[in-house]
Structures are given as structure tokens and as C-alpha cells.
């Protein structure tokens, strides 16, 4: 933990808190995926997101893995998925990808997530999803997931042990936005470009 502690010492506006502590304080929400429909049920219009669809910071929709809306609602347990734009999603099963977070982009909210993922969402005005992504992708934070991967015995164990992960927390929203501006610019620019492209196609 020396690296992450050094980070907070060098940045006076940062302090360390565990994901479990942040969840207890209701500053973040942590929850799992919806479930895993069988392969013969994947004929529909709602994307089913598997662990293999989480790559390089993005949630990739596979057009061969779509489920009917009625089935999706069963997995959601509601009329909607409960997901929000810019939710952070990471694999939860034992793999090298545990702790690598991908961003659910606007327009991808109506999806069924496999049960083998973790979803992280901010629940405070102190920092947004882009700050969370910045904090969770710091190399000293990512290194903490190593012991979860290597000590994990079952999927439920990961959900418990991830509460031990320490991340830097800012003293102000201004600091949070300053530290994470590159993440915000990147993902918001992607969304702006997507909207511009879709609009141009629809009006061509």
C-alpha cells in the first residue's frame, strides 16, 4: 500500500478510504449484474453483456448476444435495467481483468449484465463517475486487486474482498474534476461524436 499512501501524502487534498467504507457512507453504490441467460435464449433486441465484452475501457455490444425484452425484464426484476450512463463495470470472476473498469456509455443502459460483473456508481456530489474511474485505474489501486484475484476462492468472495480496496477521496468537487478531467473529456467527446454521427445519418 506504500504507493497509494504516497499519493495521498503528495496531494494534500486527498485522503484514503476503502470501497466498503464509501459504500457504508452511501457515497458509492456497489452491485452485481442481472444474471446469465442460456445461449438458446439469446434471440431478441436487448444486449446481453458478458465478461468477454468488457475490453479496453469499453462495454462492447455483441449483436449475436441479444435477448427478448420480456426475458430481459425477468432478469432486471423490473421494467428497466436499473443501469445509468457512465456506470463502471468490471469482471468479478477470477481472471486478469478483475479490477479493470469499463464505462457503460449513454444508450447502453437497456442491457442485461452477466451476474459475473461488479457495477460501481457514485452516490455523492463530491465526485462523479469520471473521478471514480480515475481513482480506480491508478496503478497503485489496480495493484490492490492482485490479492483479490490470487486469494479468491469463489465469486462471492470477490464481492466481499473488494470492500478492502483503498482509493483516494478528494476534499472538494473542484479537486475531483481537476484530477479526472482527461477521463471526462475522453468519454464525453466520444458521446458527442456518436450523437453527431447518428444525427447526420438520420438526416442524410
Strands of the largest sheet, in order across it? 2-10-7-8
Fraction in helix: 25-40%
- Structural class determined from secondary elements: alpha+beta
Q: What characterizes the major β-sheet? A: 4 strands, antiparallel
Percentage beta strand: 15-25%
Count of strand segments:
11
Which stretches are poorly predicted, pLDDT < 50 over at least 5 residues? none
Mean of all residue-level pLDDT scores: 88
| Number of DSSP helical runs | 9
Name the helix and strand elements from N-terminus to C-terminus, one letter apiece. Answer: HEHEEEEEHEEEEHHHHEHH
What overall form do the CA principal axes indicate? globular
Q: Evaluate the radius of gyration.
A: 18 Å
Question: How many angstroms separate the termini?
Answer: 55 Å
Written overview of the protein:
The chain is of the alpha+beta class and 204 residues long. Helix content is 38%, strand content 19%. It contains 9 helices and 11 strands. It has a 4-stranded antiparallel β-sheet with strand order 2-10-7-8. It has a 3-stranded mixed β-sheet with strand order 6-3-9. A two-stranded antiparallel sheet has the order 1-11. Strand 4 and strand 5 form a beta hairpin. The longest helix is centred in the C-terminal third of the chain and has 22 residues, at 181-202. The chain is globular. The protein starts with a helix and ends with a helix. The model has no long low-confidence stretch (mean pLDDT 88).
Amino acid at each position: 500500500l506504500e504507493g497509494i499512501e504516497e499519493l495521498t501524502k503528495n496531494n494534500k487534498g486527498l485522503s484514503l478510504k476503502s470501497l466498503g467504507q464509501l459504500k457504508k457512507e452511501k457515497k458509492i453504490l456497489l452491485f452485481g449484474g442481472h444474471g446469465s441467460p442460456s445461449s438458446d435464449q439469446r434471440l431478441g433486441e436487448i444486449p446481453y453483456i458478458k465478461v468477454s465484452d468488457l475490453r479496453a475501457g469499453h462495454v462492447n455490444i455483441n449483436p449475436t448476444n441479444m435477448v427478448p425484452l420480456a426475458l430481459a425484464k425477468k432478469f432486471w426484476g423490473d421494467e428497466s435495467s436499473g443501469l445509468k450512463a457512465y456506470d463502471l463495470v468490471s469482471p468479478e470472476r477470477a481472471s486478469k481483468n478483475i479490477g479493470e473498469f469499463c464505462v457503460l456509455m449513454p444508450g447502453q443502459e437497456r442491457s442485461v449484465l452477466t451476474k459475473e460483473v461488479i457495477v460501481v456508481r457514485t452516490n455523492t456530489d463530491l465526485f462523479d463517475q469520471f473521478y471514480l474511474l480515475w481513482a480506480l485505474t491508478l496503478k497503485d489501486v489496480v495493484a490492490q486487486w492482485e490479492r483479490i484475484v490470487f486469494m479468491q476462492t469463489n465469486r462471492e468472495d470477490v464481492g466481499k474482498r473488494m470492500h478492502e480496496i483503498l482509493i483516494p477521496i478528494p476534499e472538494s468537487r473542484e479537486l475531483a474534476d481537476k484530477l479526472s478531467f482527461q477521463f471526462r473529456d475522453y468519454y464525453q467527446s466520444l458521446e458527442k461524436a456518436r450523437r453527431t454521427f447518428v444525427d447526420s445519418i438520420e438526416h442524410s
